[in-house]
From TrEMBL:
SUPFAM superfamilies: Periplasmic binding protein-like II (SSF53850). Pfam families: NMT1, TAT_signal. InterPro entries: SsuA/THI5 (IPR015168), TAT_signal (IPR006311), TAT_signal_bac_arc (IPR019546). It comes from the Bacteria. This is ABC transporter substrate-binding protein. Residues 59-270 form the SsuA/THI5-like domain.
Length: 342
């Protein structure tokens, strides 16, 4: 490894951004958390198990990073654990030590954390991977037009329902009283709209993207626009007990994560091709490339920026009643986020 950094060197966010401007963000991120030991020596890697949702396009950089040696560069031997597509199984995989850390939708983490689940959030990966779609001839052009309508989703507590409930609440629409949520099988939500059983689709990419193209639907909102503009979508969390004993490993996981997503932002076609070849998602390479190209990678959510994102998310979920009225968003955000590169 060429980017060697003594263990006593402290990286502040200011120094990180300054260095990134000079030497390139990818090279700088690759250096964060590095140790003086050479990781090229066989058997000198630290093992860590990361959970992921392999069918989700936005998780594909994780698998790509393992396959292409990004984690190895940071001295890590990563094993991936498929935790399923539910936020609850994400929580369970860390609670039962089936995995030590991994990515999940920010809103999926927050209620379990509020209830006492011992997890720390330490770095964001990207912004935007969910869409709200309607038929073009429906007359629905905005969130306001959804009042009195039925929104189809794939689970009573789906991440898409949670996210767009926040958007509705911010638009002055009660997401529990002013709209009806209807559950369809995961891959048949759009068919519900086509059959007239729902007025809108709330789903995640790449499925939402494929529905938009297949049925020529109109996107009226997503998790990159409006209240979600410049907000982080997915965040890596770590089992608190594991972190306390393995801080350096998780610091390097964070550095590798930033490295991988910087690369994905610059080479979405390469990551899409890997995803297509290895995971057979039933969607074309061209569509996968478009999905990955559309995600936000240019921001690096860690330290104070991540704490701010978590606080905002808690404030948003309080509007929908998911978070208890007595919970202090600022206090809990500071308590459960790590300044990983401090």
């Amino acid at each position: 490894m060429t980017d060697q950094i003594p263990t006593n060197r402290i990286f502040s966010r200011r120094n990180f951004l300054k260095a990134a401007g000079i030497a390139g963000a990818a090279a700088t991120v690759g250096a964060i958390g590095a140790r003086t030991t050479s990781y090229a020596i066989a058997g000198n890697l630290d093992k860590v198990k990361l959970e992921w949702t392999e069918v989700a396009a936005c998780h594909s950089p994780i698998g790509f990073g393992v396959d292409r040696g990004f984690y190895t560069k940071h001295g890590l031997d990563v094993e991936l654990f498929y935790q399923g597509a539910s936020g609850q199984t994400l929580i369970q995989s860390l609670a039962t030590h089936k995995a030590e850390a991994g990515p999940g939708l920010l809103y999926d983490w927050l209620k379990p954390i509020e209830q006492g689940f011992d997890v720390k959030l330490f770095v964001g990966s990207h912004g935007g991977c969910q869409r709200l779609l309607v038929k073009k001839d429906s007359g629905i052009k905005s969130l306001a037009d959804l009042k009195g309508k039925t929104i189809g989703t794939f689970d009573v507590g789906s991440p898409s329902r949670v996210a767009f409930s926040v958007a509705l609440a911010k638009a002055g629409i009660n997401p529990e009283q002013d709209v009806t949520w209807k559950v369809f099988p995961f891959d048949l939500v759009a068919e519900g709209v086509e059959r007239g059983e729902a007025d809108a689709v709330a789903h995640m990419d790449p499925w939402a993207f494929s529905y938009e193209k297949k049925y020529d639907l109109l996107k009226i909102y997503d998790t990159q626009t409006g209240i979600f503009e410049d907000r982080v979508c997915c965040v890596l969390g770590v089992n608190g007990e594991y972190y306390n004993s393995n801080k350096d490993i998780i610091r390097r996981v964070a550095a590798a994560n930033l490295d991988i997503h910087q690369y994905t932002g610059e080479h979405p076609d390469e990551v899409a091709k890997w995803y297509f070849d290895n995971l057979k998602p039933g969607i074309s390479v061209e569509d996968l490339t478009e999905v990955l190209s559309g995600l936000v990678y240019h921001k690096h959510w860690f330290g104070k920026d991540l704490t701010s994102e978590v606080q905002i998310a808690y404030e948003n979920l309080k509007l929908t009643g998911v978070i208890d009225p007595g919970t202090d968003p600022e206090e809990i955000a500071h308590r459960v986020t790590l300044d990983i590169f401090a």
